[in-house]
Structure formats: structure tokens, C-alpha cells
DNA sequence: GAGTCAGGTGTACGGCGTACACCTGAGCTA
DNA sequence: TAGCTCAGGTGTACGCCGTACACCTGACTC
């Protein structure tokens, strides 16, 4: 019945399959049941390799983050941090579900810690105080993972603008004039209509790096 | 059998009960079934007042956000924005589940739009260009909702440090020296040990407001 | 007095994570 | 060689979830 000598599962193969499944079908499709089906195995078999669902997604995050490339050693702190953040952003583009995974996983993972440690190390080597590094990284927030903390569209995979009829749209513009003006200004500048995600992301990133540079030079101390 | 003339449900009462339930038992306990039980009604009855679960949580968010107080009209743009952001933060403290709700809800809500519009309005009245307002609010990100985009502990309600044994801790410190140094520096400054969330939040907020002020004065334009 | 209809009911389906008992076969030891 | 251990896969079951669909009921209208 069983394939002769089907090599036994292990954690790495489970995680790899989970990544592939999420890539193909999105984060919601990553269930213990569908994953086990993909591996030709019964759902409970996964629990021999993974403590629970949370451990699974933490492991997936860990696997992906552990593959972030490292910047050249010779780079300045700013280029180095930027490189790491953009590397995270690039991974996010290849695995859009990563965002929800990072938001969902609760177990701390070595690779995740290593990424944070590396960013902190870039700053420490440049002479930043750990006090400033600490506060600065909190200010950076999710940006160190390559995505901005969006206040607008919480779910980036949701319905893409349900074609609002003009009357409704006019009412909206009247009720929320400033939001409407932002939209108008934005489409005037970029007729394609959508936000320029990359530009906005880099705007925020450089803003914060600038600020940290200035505070470092000024000998900032907390409180 | 039924209570005589039990007043019929309506959307507002459903949302109010949902808020109370979330306050008492957390966001995970807010299910259609438990909510209906609380209202003495069968689960499907809720669907007469709410389109689906997502509509429920969107409605809850809308209700809470619509109660954010408004700053005095005479305030400067900076005080006004700060007031709104801190008002959101205060609401978050009263309803910790709000964070997960905001992250989870996908339907756009009038109150949410109004909050964003109000912040944008504060800036617009001070003469900021909509271009800068747009980019600036993206940089602010979730901070306009009163919570920082945490890169460290994704789930603020999770296990509170599982008392790691010293050997393990030393190994961690060796593997992640910069993270360890940050922790050491932080506990040296604040023997209580924990991060000073408020100080970190305000640090990031003021950083961004400073930057926006400077860019505005310099006549910044995107691209 | 018949019709409409808002609002509450009951049943059911298909999904989820996972506890628990069990089986199986390879590898070791006596 | 007989028996043991034990890692790894199985099968069944439970309790939860959101919600589709058909139904009932009682108030209000023409």
C-alpha cells in the first residue's frame, strides 16, 4: 500500500512544504490538514515534527528569515541597515503571506532574533549607544521586516476597490474632504492611481534613519 | 416561554454586547456563538443585524473609534495630532483587543476614515501640502491608532517571559550580543526591567512629527 | 381577513486544531 | 534468535468555528 521506503518526514521537509503551500495558496490555506494532505500523510503525523500550529508558522518564518542575505562587511551603517531592511522587503515580495505570519507567530525564533541582532550590530559598530539603538529600533518597528505599519488598508490582499459609484464617491469626498484631497493629489501626481508603496516605504525609512543619525551626533540619551 | 416583550435586538445592541464580551474575555472569545449566547439568542439571529463576522468586528471598531474625543479647536497642528493619537492610545488601553481588531477588520468604516481625515485635516490647516500629508501619514502608520508597529514581541498578550534558565540565557547573549546589550542597557536604566512602552511610543511619534515639520518648512515634494 | 415581512429558530455542513490510543517496523540488546 | 524499545505514521473522536437554508411567528398593513 505505502510507497516502498518513502523517506520519513522531518521538520525541515514539513516546513519546506508549508512554505510551498503558502506560496501557492496563501496563508489561509496553510492548515494542518491541507499540509498533511500535500505530504501524503495523516494530519496527526505532523505533530511528530511540530509542536502545534503556532510552532509550524514560527518555524516557517524562521526558515525564511534565516535565508536573508547579509550585506558586504565594508558598508557603512546606513547602507548596511538599508540593505537588510530591503532584503526583508524583497523576501516579503516573494512570500506575501510572510507578513501575516510575522504578525501571527508568537514563538521567538533564532533567525528572527539574528536579524534584529544584525541590525542592532550595524548601529553598534557605528558607535550608536544601545540606548539609542533600542529606541530607534522600536521606532523602526515593522519596517525592519520590510513592511510598513499600514494605517489605511489593513489587509493588503483584500478586495481591490469595489468600483464605487460616483454619487457615493462624491458623498465620501464631502464627508472626508482631506482624505479625498490626498487621493486627488496622489492621482494627479501618479495617474496610475495607486500609492507608490516603495516610495512611501523608503520615505518613512529614510526619515527614521535621518533622525537616528542626528540624535546620535547630538549624543541623545533617553529621558 | 420567551420573556414577554423582550425588546428586539438591533445592530447597536449587538455591537455593544460584542464590545463588552471582548472586554471581559478577549478577542478570541468573541465568536458568533458566544456572543449570541450572551444575548440569549440563537447564533443565526445575529445575522439579521450583521452581515458576517468581519462586519461584526468592523462594526465594533467603528463604534469604538467613533467615540474618540476631539481636541480643542484652538490647538496647534502638532498638539492636535498628538491629542488624537494619544486618544487612540488611551482607547487601546481600555480595550486591548482593539489592536487585533484593527489588524483584522477589512471593511472600511466611517469612523476610521473620519479619524484619519481629522489627522489629515490638522496638518492641512497648518498649511502642509497633501503630498506631504500623504507620505507623512504613511510614515506614521499604525502609530495613528495608538500602537507602535512592534518588531519584537508580536503578540502583546502572550506568555510573559518564561523564566529562562541562566545557562540558556548566557548562550542567547553569546549568540545575539547586540540584543543582549540592548537588554542590559535597558535594565540598567530601568531596574523594573520592562521596556518603557510609553516613552518608546512617544519617541517614535515625536521623531516623525519633527521630521514632518522640517520637511514642511523646507517645501518638500515627493520624488 | 389575507398578505407582508422583520426578526428569531433549528438543523446541518464543512472546516479547523488537536487529544489519545493504537499500530508498525527498524535497530538494538541478551 | 527472541524480545524490547521507540520513532514515526494511523484512526477516531471531540469541541470549536462561521454560516447556508428552510422555517416559524407575531405584529402591522390594505
From TrEMBL, chains A, B:
The keyword Transmembrane does not apply. Keywords: DNA-binding, Transcription, Transcription regulation. This is TetR/AcrR family transcriptional regulator C-terminal domain-containing protein. Coiled coil: none annotated. The lineage of its organism: Bacteria, Bacillati, Actinomycetota, Actinomycetes, Micrococcales. It comes from the Bacteria. Residues 8-68 form the HTH tetR-type domain. InterPro entries: Homeodomain-like_sf, HTH-type_TetR-like_transc_reg, HTH_TetR, Repressor_TetR_C, Tet_transcr_reg_TetR-rel_C_sf. The keyword DNA-binding applies.
Amino acid at each position: 500500500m505505502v510507497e516502498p521506503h518513502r523517506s520519513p518526514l522531518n521538520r525541515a521537509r514539513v516546513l519546506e512544504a508549508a512554505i510551498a503551500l503558502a506560496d501557492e495558496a496563501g496563508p489561509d490555506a496553510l492548515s494542518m490538514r491541507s499540509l498533511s494532505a500535500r505530504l501524503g500523510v495523516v494530519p496527526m503525523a505532523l505533530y511528530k515534527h511540530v509542536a502545534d500550529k503556532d510552532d509550524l508558522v514560527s518555524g516557517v518564518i524562521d526558515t525564511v528569515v534565516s535565508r536573508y542575505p547579509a550585506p558586504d562587511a565594508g558598508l557603512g551603517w546606513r547602507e548596511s541597515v538599508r540593505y537588510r531592511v530591503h532584503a526583508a522587503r524583497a523576501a516579503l515580495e516573494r512570500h506575501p503571506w510572510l507578513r501575516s505570519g510575522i504578525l501571527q507567530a508568537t514563538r521567538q525564533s533564532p533567525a528572527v532574533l539574528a536579524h534584529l541582532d544584525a541590525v542592532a550590530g550595524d548601529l553598534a559598530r557605528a558607535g550608536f549607544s544601545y540606548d539609542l539603538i533600542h529606541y530607534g529600533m522600536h521606532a523602526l518597528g515593522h519596517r525592519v521586516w520590510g513592511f510598513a505599519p499600514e494605517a489605511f488598508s489593513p489587509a493588503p490582499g483584500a478586495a481591490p476597490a469595489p468600483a464605487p459609484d460616483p454619487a457615493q464617491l462624491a458623498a465620501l469626498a464631502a464627508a472626508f474632504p482631506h482624505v479625498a484631497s490626498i487621493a486627488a493629489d496622489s492621482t494627479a501626481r501618479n495617474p496610475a492611481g495607486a500609492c507608490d508603496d516603495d516610495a512611501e516605504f523608503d520615505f518613512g525609512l529614510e526619515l527614521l534613519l535621518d533622525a537616528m543619525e542626528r540624535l546620535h551626533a547630538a549624543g541623545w540619551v533617553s529621558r
